[in-house]
Amino acid sequence: MPDFALSFDEFVLAASTDSLADEPAAREHADAVEFRLDLADDPLEQLSAYDGELPIIATNRAAWEAGGASDETERLLTVETALEDDAVAAIDLECRALDGSVAAADTETAQQVRTSAREAGVPVIASIHDFEATPPREKLTALLDRAADAGTVGKLATTAHDRGDALALLSATHEATAAGKTVATMGMGAAGQHTRAVAPIYGSAIGYAPVEAAEATAPGQYPLATLRELVDGLATPTNNDV
Ligand SMILES: O=C1C[C@@](O)(C(=O)O)C[C@@H](O)[C@@H]1O
């Protein structure tokens, strides 16, 4: 059986998809598959039939965070069921589900799923998305702190409108990783695209990309093979202080 464990000590490139049939095509470039259960047909059936080699990050994104899952309790319990699958090496839970800051959230169930993941030794990616903008620099640090405290990896995806936004996100990433936090960041939209290639240099632990450009799960994603080439092609400077 393949070793499905995922450690976020090193950059993980996840092929983001609604179909596990993409896994063979992803294998050449990806370290993991992000399976978007909320966008998939019969996600639990796909999981039990999975015979791929890449570890799976299970994400069941809430409709209130621009995902496809509308029944809050059901979507969280589906993630909890997914945890039982050996191939599921990490799960994604929205910070706003965990802290109850949106009215639609079922905080108790979200926290219970996080506890189940911890008991199973499965890392939790605690995520925050801003589909409108990139908040000011200090706010980015506060958001990353909040996400990193909530999960094994704190993930922040914001919409960048210009290079200043991209730079602020990279700078907040650098500060967080230099402080020893495990974070993943990405700028959404055209102005944020290059951050997907560059953020790993500043310590971002996860990148997401579709196998085919047309199957993107967020604005501004590079296709998988392109992101792999870009990330691998950018050597990490040796004079860093992380
Ligand atoms: O949270 C993220 C990051 C993402 O939104 C991106 O911008 O690449 C793509 C999503 O599939 C994933 O769950």
Automatic annotation (TrEMBL):
<feature type="binding site">
    <location>
        <position position="196"/>
    </location>
    <ligand>
        <name>3-dehydroquinate</name>
    </ligand>
</feature>
<feature type="active site" description="Proton donor/acceptor">
    <location>
        <position position="129"/>
    </location>
</feature>
<comment type="subunit">
    <text>Homodimer.</text>
</comment>
<dbReference type="GO" id="GO:0046279">
    <property type="term" value="P:3,4-dihydroxybenzoate biosynthetic process"/>
</dbReference>
<dbReference type="GO" id="GO:0003855">
    <property type="term" value="F:3-dehydroquinate dehydratase activity"/>
</dbReference>
<comment type="similarity">
    <text>Belongs to the type-I 3-dehydroquinase family.</text>
</comment>
<dbReference type="GO" id="GO:0009073">
    <property type="term" value="P:aromatic amino acid family biosynthetic process"/>
</dbReference>
<comment type="function">
    <text>Involved in the third step of the chorismate pathway, which leads to the biosynthesis of aromatic amino acids. Catalyzes the cis-dehydration of 3-dehydroquinate (DHQ) and introduces the first double bond of the aromatic ring to yield 3-dehydroshikimate.</text>
</comment>
<keyword id="KW-0057">Aromatic amino acid biosynthesis</keyword>
<comment type="pathway">
    <text>Metabolic intermediate biosynthesis; chorismate biosynthesis; chorismate from D-erythrose 4-phosphate and phosphoenolpyruvate: step 3/7.</text>
</comment>
<dbReference type="GO" id="GO:0008652">
    <property type="term" value="P:amino acid biosynthetic process"/>
</dbReference>
<feature type="binding site">
    <location>
        <position position="61"/>
    </location>
    <ligand>
        <name>3-dehydroquinate</name>
    </ligand>
</feature>
<feature type="active site" description="Schiff-base intermediate with substrate">
    <location>
        <position position="155"/>
    </location>
</feature>
<keyword id="KW-0028">Amino-acid biosynthesis</keyword>
<feature type="binding site">
    <location>
        <position position="221"/>
    </location>
    <ligand>
        <name>3-dehydroquinate</name>
    </ligand>
</feature>
<protein>
    <recommendedName>
        <fullName>3-dehydroquinate dehydratase</fullName>
        <ecNumber>4.2.1.10</ecNumber>
    </recommendedName>
</protein>
<dbReference type="InterPro" id="IPR001381">
    <property type="entry name" value="DHquinase_I"/>
</dbReference>
<keyword id="KW-0456">Lyase</keyword>
<dbReference type="GO" id="GO:0009423">
    <property type="term" value="P:chorismate biosynthetic process"/>
</dbReference>
<feature type="binding site">
    <location>
        <position position="217"/>
    </location>
    <ligand>
        <name>3-dehydroquinate</name>
    </ligand>
</feature>
<dbReference type="InterPro" id="IPR013785">
    <property type="entry name" value="Aldolase_TIM"/>
</dbReference>
<dbReference type="InterPro" id="IPR050146">
    <property type="entry name" value="Type-I_3-dehydroquinase"/>
</dbReference>
<feature type="binding site">
    <location>
        <begin position="34"/>
        <end position="36"/>
    </location>
    <ligand>
        <name>3-dehydroquinate</name>
    </ligand>
</feature>
<keyword id="KW-0704">Schiff base</keyword>
<dbReference type="Pfam" id="PF01487">
    <property type="entry name" value="DHquinase_I"/>
</dbReference>
